[in-house]
């Protein structure tokens, strides 16, 4: 590592944790306070939706950074959710303290991303899209065949998460854990965007050759964002494993990756608020339609048909008519 | 020996389906620069349409041909949504086709449910191999040869090729570039539909079979950088045969990984050779 990049690393990390609050608007804080009251008002079934929404939001914040800033389309982001979930699950089943198992999830996911990222991130556009999709299919197939991962049945009987003797065994506990996770992820993403890395990435997005000529370490930054986005997805996966208590390869289908892409695109790529709004909007709409579709008298296939239709139509409509996504478009017109 | 022959023939048969799917991707990509993620859905929709038409009492042959035409029409509609709006970039269109693929799931489950379906193909066996595989190989050979002739020998084909080579120059000489793109989508849809119609009798199809098909088709086409039909055919056959041999002699669970790892290797090797500057 050169002296220059060391200094730059210090700048980046100190800016990440510095107390300067520039750029964090007051309505972010107000929004966080309002949302933190929401779990108290929800019925048990709605709490589950809330938790799953938060987990999606964590992964989507990372994906939105990756797609918006590094210009990389990943159709395999759910692989990192799966890696995080299996990391936590396997460690917890092998008598690792649950908190350690949870912390390992984002780390292992980031390492996996850094590993595959070196060859894969040389690809662009549709090639990277297919490559990430292929990696997820390989991962699912390997997990489905692996005896150590429980094969197609997966892992069952995972313990609850416990932090210092306090066991998180209620949905409400997980709602707040997820909320904390979303806040942490958003804060890291926010700092990353505002840092030297973020400026370098913006330069990269406007002109790769120019950025490279100006000394932006293009490859390293791409890899960094890829690893960070994977860590976010991995953390979501780790919490997911403790929340549900069982895992299977089928919990992380290709469709989950596509769902993340839909959420990121609908909210607005490269916007943290957009990622959160996209995740919330899609989850709530799909949940409302599912409730509607499971009313007596509706055919059994109605929930899946409606949710697929919502993903598809929202994605197509936003891409064609609101290409920047909802949040950036609103921000610009206001 | 008989075993090896059997694996080779079934491999070539399955490979033909990949080659057809890949050729559809190539036709669309060459003319419009759009990588069509919904390519696998054409196959699934056509195959499911055949089950309905056969159920309605249509004879074999007619049902299959009608289904391929339906797939062509669906391809045209996809092209209209993905490229019809002026100013749509190929990157945007890629995301749109992704959405269309998901929309196809909704349509398929609505009309045909989420259980795998199949229909009877050519019965009997020839030399220890299901005769249907020979039908797949024969039809694919004829259709791909006809497509090659269409592109090389007809005015329409030349207009398509001109659009592929240089859309701007094509527009100057009076070729309607958008219409050519739609035509490419229709041809691509029909080729994808044919793949589904041919392969369903030997391999059940369900609404989410499209992912495996489009990934295998892409793997076949990537060998020729999505622009070379002959290499796509070669890639498809290679993938089919290698998968059949791996499935036959090693384990069926590694079959799908073969195509995926092959595709990743080709992609990464090519990216390394080309350097980082060329954007895809």
Automatic annotation (TrEMBL), chain B:
<keyword id="KW-1133">Transmembrane helix</keyword>
<feature type="transmembrane region" description="Helical">
    <location>
        <begin position="6"/>
        <end position="29"/>
    </location>
</feature>
<feature type="transmembrane region" description="Helical">
    <location>
        <begin position="180"/>
        <end position="199"/>
    </location>
</feature>
<feature type="transmembrane region" description="Helical">
    <location>
        <begin position="65"/>
        <end position="82"/>
    </location>
</feature>
<keyword id="KW-1003">Cell membrane</keyword>
<keyword id="KW-0813">Transport</keyword>
<dbReference type="InterPro" id="IPR001851">
    <property type="entry name" value="ABC_transp_permease"/>
</dbReference>
<keyword id="KW-0472">Membrane</keyword>
<feature type="transmembrane region" description="Helical">
    <location>
        <begin position="230"/>
        <end position="250"/>
    </location>
</feature>
<feature type="transmembrane region" description="Helical">
    <location>
        <begin position="41"/>
        <end position="59"/>
    </location>
</feature>
<keyword id="KW-0812">Transmembrane</keyword>
<dbReference type="InterPro" id="IPR052157">
    <property type="entry name" value="BCAA_transport_permease"/>
</dbReference>
<feature type="transmembrane region" description="Helical">
    <location>
        <begin position="133"/>
        <end position="152"/>
    </location>
</feature>
<comment type="similarity">
    <text>Belongs to the binding-protein-dependent transport system permease family. LivHM subfamily.</text>
</comment>
<feature type="transmembrane region" description="Helical">
    <location>
        <begin position="94"/>
        <end position="113"/>
    </location>
</feature>
<dbReference type="Pfam" id="PF02653">
    <property type="entry name" value="BPD_transp_2"/>
</dbReference>
<keyword id="KW-0029">Amino-acid transport</keyword>
<feature type="transmembrane region" description="Helical">
    <location>
        <begin position="256"/>
        <end position="272"/>
    </location>
</feature>
<protein>
    <submittedName>
        <fullName>Branched-chain amino acid ABC transporter permease</fullName>
    </submittedName>
</protein>
């Amino acid at each position: 590592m050169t002296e220059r990049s060391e200094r730059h690393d210090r700048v980046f990390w100190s800016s990440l944790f510095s107390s300067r609050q520039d750029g964090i608007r007051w309505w972010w804080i107000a929004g966080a306070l309002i949302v933190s009251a929401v779990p108290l008002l929800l019925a048990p079934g709605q709490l589950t939706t809330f938790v799953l929404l938060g987990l999606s939001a964590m992964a989507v914040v990372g994906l939105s950074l990756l797609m918006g800033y590094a210009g990389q389309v990943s159709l395999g982001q759910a692989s990192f959710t799966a890696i995080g979930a299996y990391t936590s699950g396997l460690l917890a089943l092998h008598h690792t303290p649950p908190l350690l198992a949870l912390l390992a999830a984002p780390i292992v996911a980031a390492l996996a991303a850094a590993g595959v990222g070196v060859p894969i991130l040389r690809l662009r556009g549709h090639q990277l899209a297919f490559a990430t999709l292929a990696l997820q299919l390989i991962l699912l197939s390997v997990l489905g065949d692996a005896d150590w991962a429980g094969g197609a049945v997966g892992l069952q009987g995972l313990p609850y998460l416990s932090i210092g003797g306090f066991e998180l065994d209620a949905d409400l506990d997980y709602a707040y854990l997820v909320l904390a996770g979303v806040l942490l992820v958003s804060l890291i993403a926010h700092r990353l965007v505002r840092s030297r890395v973020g400026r370098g990435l913006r330069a990269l997005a406007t002109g790769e050759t120019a950025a490279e000529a100006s000394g932006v370490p293009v490859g390293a930054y791409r890899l960094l964002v890829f690893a960070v986005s994977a860590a976010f997805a991995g953390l979501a996966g780790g919490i997911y494993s403790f929340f549900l208590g069982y895992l299977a390869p089928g919990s992380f289908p290709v469709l989950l990756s596509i769902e993340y892409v839909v959420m990121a695109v609908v909210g607005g790529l490269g916007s943290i608020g957009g990622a959160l709004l996209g995740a919330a909007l899609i989850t709530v709409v799909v949940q409302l339609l599912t409730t509607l579709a499971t009313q007596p008298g509706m055919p059994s296939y109605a929930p899946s048909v409606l949710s697929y239709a919502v993903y598809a139509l929202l994605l197509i409509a936003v891409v064609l008519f609101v290409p920047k996504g909802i949040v950036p478009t609103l921000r610009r017109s206001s | 020996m008989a075993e090896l022959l059997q694996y080779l023939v079934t491999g070539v048969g399955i490979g033909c389906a990949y080659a057809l799917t890949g050729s559809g991707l190539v036709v669309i990509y060459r003319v419009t620069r759009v990588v069509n993620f919904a390519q696998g859905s054409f196959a699934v929709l056509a195959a499911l349409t055949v089950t309905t038409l056969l159920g309605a009492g249509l004879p074999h042959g007619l049902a299959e041909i009608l289904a391929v035409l339906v797939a062509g029409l669906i391809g045209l509609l996809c092209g209209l949504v993905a490229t019809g709006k002026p100013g749509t970039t190929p990157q945007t269109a890629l995301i749109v086709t992704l959405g269309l693929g998901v929309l196809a799931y909704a349509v398929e489950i609505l009309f045909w449910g989420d259980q795998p379906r199949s229909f009877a193909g050519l019965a009997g066996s020839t030399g220890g191999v299901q005769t249907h595989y020979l039908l797949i190989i024969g039809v694919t050979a004829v259709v791909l040869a006809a497509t090659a002739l269409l592109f090389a020998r007809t005015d329409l084909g030349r207009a398509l090729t001109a659009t592929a080579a240089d859309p701007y120059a094509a527009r100057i000489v009076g070729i309607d570039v958008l219409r050519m793109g739609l035509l490419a989508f229709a041809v691509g849809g029909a080729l994808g539909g044919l793949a589904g119609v041919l392969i369903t009798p030997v391999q059940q199809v369900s609404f989410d079979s499209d992912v495996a098909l489009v990934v295998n088709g892409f793997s076949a086409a990537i060998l020729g950088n999505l622009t070379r039909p002959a290499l796509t055919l070669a890639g498809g056959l290679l993938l089919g045969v290698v998968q059949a041999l791996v499935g036959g002699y090693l384990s069926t669970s590694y079959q799908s990984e073969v195509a995926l790892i092959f595709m990743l290797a080709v992609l990464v090797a090519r990216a390394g050779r080309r350097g980082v500057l060329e954007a895809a």
